[in-house]
Amino acid sequence: MNDLLYNKKVMCPACNREIEVTRVKTKACKVLSRDTDMCVHYENINVLFYDVWVCDNCGYAALQDKFEGLFTRDVKAIKENISKNWIKRSFTGERDVDKAIEAFKLALLTLKVRNAKNSEIAKVCLRIAWLYRFKKHSANEIKYLNFALEAYKDAYQNERFPLDKLDEITCMYIIAELFRRVGKFDEAITWFSRIVASPEARSKPSLIDMARDQYQLAKDQLAEQNT
């Protein structure tokens, strides 16, 4: 196994069995760059590949910081809708992009089975889109960007902020940028304008700067589309 990775034993909250999961060593988490929709590119190893833990025994999957948070009703839903059809397989050790996509889609399935909040679904869909970006599969990237966009819009309208660690202004920015990336430039311009005009956004000057840049880019793209 890559020496930047290590295995750790944890208890699966769905089946109460001890399993092994793979984590990235802190020293490997060196950021190379960030895309305008917050996708992080790493220098040594793609940390995102390992952000979902999967129980090889029952099929339960979740982002590692959410792995332990299950209610009794969730356990029942997972057993009835995932575990009974689960074919045991391991997700420990080094992952390529396809294995990472499989893990994230299992996490998405778990969220849907649990009737999880749209903010949680949006977060996972956005990361699946990033994985397809790494794979240079633009059609699937756009597909999951659209899924993330719809879920974030619903969460923005119906959930209380912060959404996990996401504040309202950052959520608005992500919605705006996703609109731009899926080619809905009018909507992107509207959302970027709201950020720039928002008094609350003044506490995030770097985000305002990004919103201004993307606002202008969306306007240029819209003008090009209409020529």
UniProtKB/TrEMBL annotation:
<protein>
    <submittedName>
        <fullName>DUF2225 domain-containing protein</fullName>
    </submittedName>
</protein>
<dbReference type="InterPro" id="IPR018708">
    <property type="entry name" value="DUF2225"/>
</dbReference>
<dbReference type="InterPro" id="IPR011990">
    <property type="entry name" value="TPR-like_helical_dom_sf"/>
</dbReference>
<dbReference type="Pfam" id="PF09986">
    <property type="entry name" value="DUF2225"/>
</dbReference>
